[in-house]
Amino acid sequence: MGMSLRSVGRFLILPGVLVAALGTPAALGQVAGEIMFNEKFLGLIDSSLDEDLIQFEEVAGSTLKVTVTANSGNNLHPGLELLDDAMTPIDVGSALKLKKKKAQIKGFELPATGVYYVRVSSANQLTGTYKAVIKGSAPKKFSGGATISAPGEIDEIEFHARAGSKLKGSIERVTGDVQPFAIELVGPGGTLAAIAGGIETNPEVTEVSLSKIDLPTFGTYRLRITGQSGTTGEYAWSFKVTPPDPVKGKVYEDGHPQDDGTPADGFTLENISFGRGLKTLEGLTLDVVSPFSVVQTDPISDLPVPGTLKPLFIGGNLSQLVSFNLG
Questions:
Q1: Pairwise CA distance, residues 131 & 251, whole Å
Q2: Non-local CB neighbours of 188 within 8 Å, separated by 6+ positions
Q3: Are 275 and 288 within 8 A, CB to CB?
Q4: pLDDT tens for residues 76-112?
Q5: Residues 105-134 as b or e (16 or more Cβ within 10 Å = b)
Q6: I need a labelling partner for 62 at 20 to 30 A (CA). Which of 24, 104, 162, 300 fits?
Q7: pTM of the predicted model, to two decimals?
Q8: CB-CB contact of 280 with 267 (8 Å)
Q9: Is 239 exposed, middle or buried (0-12, 13-18, 19+ CB in 10 A)?
Q10: Distance, CA of 275 to CA of 267 (rounded, Å)
């Protein structure tokens, strides 16, 4: 009998890239920056008609939390909407919380997997800068069962994951003589993901375990399994997808008054010797101009970059080394 392929489960795990865009939906191509969950997007509403769009991909059943807060020094009352992939507003009901300078969508369960947009505007016709943070949580664990009813039958378990996630879990026999065997992990676009180094079968050949399997690309994965040597029977599976650690950092909208053009996540020193021509891992050139301060220098003119002089320490205390974030 020839092999047959069927889907026995679809499970959705939190994905992660967000893209901030400017203007009205017609101007979606004006991308301001790419951010990840938990990063801060620092935006600017510069007219009563201005709207900022933050685009993200998320899975059905994920619980969304969006927080938009106007910065001190302005009277902006941010307006906040959630849009679907067609840019049609979604009724989030009581999950929308508006408190003058703070707007939130909190505890809203997304209805479908796909692209969403957060639209930030001015609810009181005033302008100003703001901070936006988007977070989402989805079930990390999934389990179920199925039956290999014919020799050579191949079942598929489908799930979605963030780039950089890890997969672990097991498939085990429940009834019959089935010897469960994971034959391949198919990644987004139909590419095969490596599992050889993280798969193990118990001596009784009744259980297959997967450990620390890399999921390098965002998107849909399908784990294909069958009964080894033509065996059949009922089996069960239990898996967990662990997403990468949350990203910390900030991304500025173009034209934001606090953006000085330096890397949003700072830089990393290769060494901390005092002197000129100090290099960072990100390729910046710095001068340590005194025991307590550092300045970024232009690699072409060899002159200090205006506005980049920063202290190394707070009060000279070595235990209070400040972040090398020139932003």
A1: 10
A2: 217, 218, 219, 220, 221
A3: yes
A4: 999 999 999 888 999 999 999 999 999 999 999 988 7
A5: beebebeebeebbbbbbbeeeeebbbebbb
A6: 24
A7: 0.66
A8: yes
A9: buried
A10: 17
